[in-house]
């Protein structure tokens, strides 16, 4: 059986328990999983810097005891980054049909750019199917409790940034 390396790309702003669920699921089926933060994402103004997100992901990887997971950052095309890492697959999460509608064309473009790069679609645990980083940030900024949806260290860092009731 080949040694399979996969990239789990995203903005991870902030890292959620849904992300951690997919990391755990992905780590079970590939030999090495790289959680890769896209540096030049067009997703509005981030709550956390790329460096802060990288620290949080690395802390979560260590806390969860993932031995075959690492974290990194990248710019530019995902297929180029995957090629530079020697990865054979990309891991993407699907929470709802709208995710599929967004992810499918990207997977097809990636296949066009690199026919050797496979896309693995995975669904998170049901309890995280509605959780997105954007929703977490919005609820938190309005004073809502997101402590069951993100790791405790993310809650601490969000509180340190301000914008919510203590």
What does this protein structure show overall?
This protein is α/β, with parallel strands linked by helices. The protein has a single domain, classed as Rossmann fold (3-Layer(aba) Sandwich). Helix content is 43%, strand content 17%. The protein is built from 6 helices and 5 strands. A 5-stranded parallel sheet has the order 3-2-1-4-5, sandwiched between helices.
Question: Key terms for this structure?
Answer:
5 strands, five-stranded parallel β-sheet, 17% strand, single chain, 6 helices, 166 residues, alpha/beta, Rossmann fold
Provide a short characterization of the protein structure.
This protein has helices at 17-29, 50-64, 78-85, 97-113, 133-141, 152-161, and strands spanning 5-10, 32-38, 69-74, 89-93, 118-122. By secondary structure, the protein is an alpha/beta fold.
Question: What is the strand and helix layout of this fold?
Answer:
Layout: E1 5-10, H1 17-29, E2 32-38, H2 50-64, E3 69-74, H3 78-85, E4 89-93, H4 97-113, E5 118-122, H5 133-141, H6 152-161
Parallel strand pairs: 1-2, 1-4, 2-3, 4-5
């Amino acid at each position: 059986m080949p040694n399979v390396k996969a990239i789990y790309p995203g903005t991870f702003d902030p890292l959620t328990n849904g992300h951690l669920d997919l990391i755990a699921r992905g780590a079970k089926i590939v030999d090495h999983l790289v959680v890769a933060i896209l540096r030049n994402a067009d997703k509005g103004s981030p709550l956390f810097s790329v460096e802060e997100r990288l620290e949080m992901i690395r802390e979560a990887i260590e806390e969860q005891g993932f031995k075959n997971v690492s974290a990194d950052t990248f710019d530019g095309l995902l297929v180029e980054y995957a090629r530079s890492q020697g990865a054979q697959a990309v891991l993407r999460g699907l929470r709802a049909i709208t995710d599929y509608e967004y992810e499918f064309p990207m997977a097809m473009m990636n296949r066009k750019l690199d026919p050797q790069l496979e896309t693995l679609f995975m669904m998170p645990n049901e309890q995280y199917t509605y959780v997105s980083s954007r929703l977490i940030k919005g609820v938190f900024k309005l004073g809502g409790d997101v402590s069951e949806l993100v790791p405790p260290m993310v809650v601490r860092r969000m509180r340190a940034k301000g914008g919510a009731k203590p």
